[in-house]
Design a protein that fits this description.
This protein is of the alpha/beta class. The chain is built from seven helices and seven strands. It has a single domain, classed as 3-Layer(aba) Sandwich (Rossmann fold), CATH 3.40.50. The protein starts with a strand and ends in a 6-residue tail after the last strand.
Length: 247
């Protein structure tokens, strides 16, 4: 039985990924920051179909809490699965901010940095001793690192940093046979950044070769598939999952 930790999995892409992973036989540690009820709903959905899951609180913006989170993960691994290690880490937690560069405050900049780059860096570092050899790390980046979109400069810059960090993870963790890849979603119908209104969605759909915006399970399914052993030779890659956005 493989065990996956999926950050920010109480809703959106993370929840979809958790459910897709469970559907492929993985056990899941769901994390949430401020909405335990939503996390419990994801756990219940997984368990209703015969899967195994547990929800733990995690604030990816606060690296000072990571050691305590690691200890809680270790306790749950032992209590629920009789194991000392987990197999997969999906660094998904995040949020959007749509402001032009001229109006971004330092506080807004720092908030995005903590969640999208510093958090994944130090959370991965903290959890690495608990990751089984032969494991896999998937970082969520963004198609905005390829296509410049006005209003998301800090977000895209940190996602670009995470894309580079992914390759370094693959390089440095390779001796333990730990793979690292990133998935770059295009426009997805989620609550990120306040969601999409009908007019904006129509514009994005018109810019996408397949003629629609993505759904959370388009990304969740891709991540779950990438984690599987059938994709064991994919490593150090950034894979855009966007339906052909602005090609």
């Amino acid at each position: 039985m493989k065990i996956a930790i999926i950050t920010g999995s109480s809703r959106g892409l993370g929840a979809s990924t958790a459910i897709e992973c469970a559907g492929r036989g993985m056990s899941v540690i769901v994390t949430y920051n401020s909405n335990p009820a939503k996390a419990d709903e994801v756990v219940s959905a997984i368990m209703a179909k015969g899967g195994q899951a547990v929800a733990l609180k995690l604030d990816v913006a606060n690296s000072g809490t990571f050691a305590a989170f690691r200890d809680e993960v270790a306790a749950q691994l032992d209590a629920l699965w009789g194991r000392q290690t987990f197999d997969y880490l999906v660094n998904n937690a995040g949020y959007g901010l749509f402001n032009p560069i001229a109006t971004v405050t330092e506080e807004q900049f720092d908030g995005l940095f903590y969640v999208h780059l510093k958090g994944p860096f130090f959370l991965t570092q903290t959890l690495l001793p608990l990751m089984a050899d032969g494991g896999h790390i998937v970082n969520l980046t963004s198609a905005t690192t390829r296509v410049a979109t006005s209003g998301v400069a800090p977000y895209a810059a940190f996602k670009g940093g995470l894309e580079v960090l992914t390759r370094y993870m693959a390089k440095e963790f390779g001796e333990r046979r730990i793979r690292a890849n990133s998935i770059a979603p295009g426009a997805i119908r989620t609550e990120l950044g306040g969601g999409l209104n009908d007019e904006f969605e129509a514009v994005l759909a018109g810019q996408t070769a397949l003629g629609r915006v993505g759904e959370p399970n388009d990304i969740g399914g891709a991540i779950a598939s990438l984690l599987s052993d059938e994709n064991r030779w994919i490593n150090a890659q950034n894979i855009e999952v966007s339906g052909g956005y602005l090609i």
